[in-house]
Amino acid sequence: QVQLVESGGGLVQAGGSLRLSCAASGRTLSRYAMGWFRQAPGKEREFVAAISRSGGSISYADSVKGRFTISRDNAKNMVYLQMNSLKPEDTAVYYCAATRYSVTSPSDEYDYWGQGTQVTVSS
């Protein structure tokens, strides 16, 4: 079992930045590839970014490429999502998730989920 807790969300103006953190407890995080997802009101949950166990392989959704950066620190059992040049359409609840598979985007391939953190970008 892995417990995931996100933090770092908040209200920011368009063009601003936020850094989300995901703290893991239970099993060591290095056993899992990690992903970030988001869900806006009235929309389905969507893939944002994923990182392999070692951090050597990374994938991004086209909508965030060049603006968001996913990273991890296995020694600290932490995963991060640096979000720059934020847009109002980035407004959503952001979730951290762990998967036993490699870097992957389908949400049903993730085994553990955090409770989410709200990100609101004002125009």
Summed up:
The protein is mostly beta strands. It is 0% helix and 51% strand. The relative contact order is 0.32.
What gyration radius follows from the Cα positions, in whole Å?
13 Å
Structural class: mainly beta
Distance between the termini: 40 Å
Number of separate strands: 11
**How would you sum up the global shape?**
globular
Average pLDDT level: 96
Main beta sheet: 7 strands, mixed
Low-confidence stretches: none
Helix count from the secondary structure assignment = 0
Helix percent reads: under 10%
Q: Strand fraction band?
A: over 45%
The arrangement of helices and strands along the chain is EEEEEEEEEEE
Report on this model:
By secondary structure, the chain is mostly beta strands. It has strands at residues 2-7, 10-13, 18-26, 33-39, 46-51, 58-60, 68-73, 78-83, 92-99, 112-113, 117-122. The radius of gyration is 13 Å and the shape is globular.
What's the arrangement of secondary structure elements?
Layout: E1 2-7, E2 10-13, E3 18-26, E4 33-39, E5 46-51, E6 58-60, E7 68-73, E8 78-83, E9 92-99, E10 112-113, E11 117-122
Parallel strand pairs: 2-11
Antiparallel strand pairs: 1-3, 3-8, 4-5, 4-9, 5-6, 7-8, 9-10, 9-11
Question: What labels describe this entry?
Answer:
123 residues, seven-stranded mixed beta sheet, mainly beta, 11 strands, single chain, four-stranded antiparallel beta sheet
